[in-house]
Give the backbone structure.
Amino acid sequence: MNINATIIGQAITFAILIWFTMKFVWPPVTHALEERAQKIADGLAAAERGKADLAKAEQRSSDALVEARQKAAEIIALSEKRRAEIIEEAKAEAVAEADRVKAAAKAEVEQESFRAREVLRGQVAALAVSGAERILRREIDTKAHADLLSALSAEL
């Protein structure tokens, strides 16, 4: 093998190229690659955090949904209970009102009955006075008295 000046010149040029590349080109490229690798790592970490946050949010939303359903069931149960109480109160009020109306009607019937008795007593007294007056106007006769008394009893 023959080493001549061309090979030595090419070797020197290649060494200068390597030195230039190592000094001026390589550091910005490695820095850009490191930045890119860091951005990718940060992106992957953010994606993992996002997945974890999504899982937590789904868990919280399912817990909130379960809690809301429980509260809704409690509210429905309370409203059903209140509805039953209102119905029972209305029934009790209706029974009390019916008893009060019945008592008032009974009192009114008794009062009307008392009035009717008083009217009848007045009429009986008037008939008795009228019968006594007729008896006294006629002559005293037992048969006439019996006829008048039977006529009076028929009027009563």
Summary: The chain is about 95% helix and 0% strand. Residues 5-137 form the longest helix (133 residues). The CA atoms of residues 6 and 12 lie 10 Å apart. The chain has a mean pLDDT of 87.
